[in-house]
């Protein structure tokens, strides 16, 4: 049986099997096929006779009545479909049912698969009582007895809401179907009522009625999400359920569909990889996929010129290709694919293109940065758009598994039949950075419709189907360089370009940078090759955890040296702001960077006296590349930013006023530049203050200042007052947000631990300095003062802040069930406060209350 009914949200009830008590007396209800006669289902008044014949009580109000019948009587929405329809139709029905079940009682069934009288009775009860009858209408539906009967009944009662897939209401003209008029009906038309032994008059009434229905919807891969949400909103209005309408409005306003970058209109190639991804995730490939957005500009021009077009494979080739894919996928987890390859080969671009092409097939696309230090936070931030309360104070009891429970809430949302696409870009490690847990714990269990795509440099992760992204062929590499052929190149330039692409190992990142240099900097290929063959400016050293892209491709360093040397020439009158912006970007977090902070970090080294005013001007402006909003387009600043965009060094984010820089540029700049940009980055973040919109940049500043979580030691030492201001302005708000909204216990405890250590070191160093100064005065005399003498309140400020952090750590330890550790931390805080404030002071008494709470918790366990 295939009846799915539930009045509770989120989940279908299990499928119902036939009952052994009616097997010998069951009514002759054959499983329907196209050649079977019409099954005459009795009306509601005859159910008592059916139940009596089946050996059951006829009283439908009795508690002994089988649950499908009892629940069918309170059905709000009936959905009729056929499980033999294409996977797209089944995906639509599952998604629609899951959305509606959160607010209404839904009965979704394929009556062709009902095996017993009770199943047929329950379906008919639901048809009679449901205020809304949804039927998925395909060309096959018109030769299906059950679909035809459902449409006839619902249309007569003015309850029919048809959802057309593969045809429209204008196609539903009975005479056209019978006479096989048009391309559609020439293949599928005819006297379709004969396929199931129905009456011609009833069949014509159904078909012609579809063209006159009050409301209908047309679903395709190109509009699935929009169409489905429109259906849900319409049902909400029809049923008078305000909760449905409000949920749709909230979904529309929440920005669920935001991707970090705009679509790459220069995306070319990778057609085979896109086909494989589509087949693995959806189970089929649509040769004329309406779900894909328009081809990129380059693909259009290539197609018009007859270039770059993939020849159509023969049926044998397609069958062999897909059978190979099926064999490869068979032993792996379904619904998840990993793209493997070195940095710069195009993993992110491939996943971004897939997401844009197929985003209508998902309710939302969630793009998660996979960098090790930020992955957990990025994942838990999904709780916001999913309307999940995941914070540590949202009803969570004392437990050592608070963080796991919060993660479980997010994972549970992805077990439903509402499809989401999760993209984890640039996964760095298989284990969590903070507590060593397997990253696979974050992945959904794949019992629902959610899909996961992962890009990584790791050779193989978990039990996941992995594609190693190949380098482009020589002809494809030439397409990367020439692009839309707007470059004016001589015939002999092809030989030079072939040399350049081989030196770059045909790495797409390098090829695209070559194209940008040739087109934007007016350099011919011969000159570029000569510059690339010149001696390297300086060797780049590598750490054990560094991305090895430059080790594999040393010629890429030469290309970057040439590129940025032009900035030194073009912008020498403005102290090379473009170069400074790229340097500053290398210290920000992995997400797109707010232009205001980027500009402040860059201008800070070139115009310290005026940098704050420029930064405020930028922050108050509305940025929109390439014109940069209200910023003076004639200024050197806007010119530098525009050049970064044209060269592809900076990329605009989908959020206004944000830009992104590729990891290769960041790695190069961290190796080539001094520590000054990192200090300016910290200054920009500190002056702006904490904001939940860019917490990864705040974390990046914490890693630098507190000297933890870094792959390289960067000498950033803030003065005493600056360090206290940094902790109060950024660390404390970051801790509160991470706990109250995301339950990031492990990361927060580590952050507070190193903050405590830094304050202890600062206190000890100042005391040692004061003691040394005192001894020097006693020996040599003089009037020089130590820092403590010039700032007598500094030690008090340090220990007060340290006590507050200790109390916060103690509270977290209480919440996570580690009372012994909490007791030690709280006792230290009490000792500090008794020295500073005295035993009876209110601040000291607050610390004692925490200690009393610890005692009560310990007595309970």
Automatic annotation (TrEMBL):
Plant disease resistance WDH domain: residues covered: 572-676
Pfam short name (any one): WHD_plant_disease
Region (Disordered): 295-317
Taxonomy, superkingdom: Eukaryota
InterPro entries: P-loop_NTPase, WHD_plant
GO BP, one annotated term: recombinational repair
Comp. bias (Basic and acidic residues): 295-307
Transmembrane segments: none
Protein name: Disease resistance protein (TIR-NBS class)
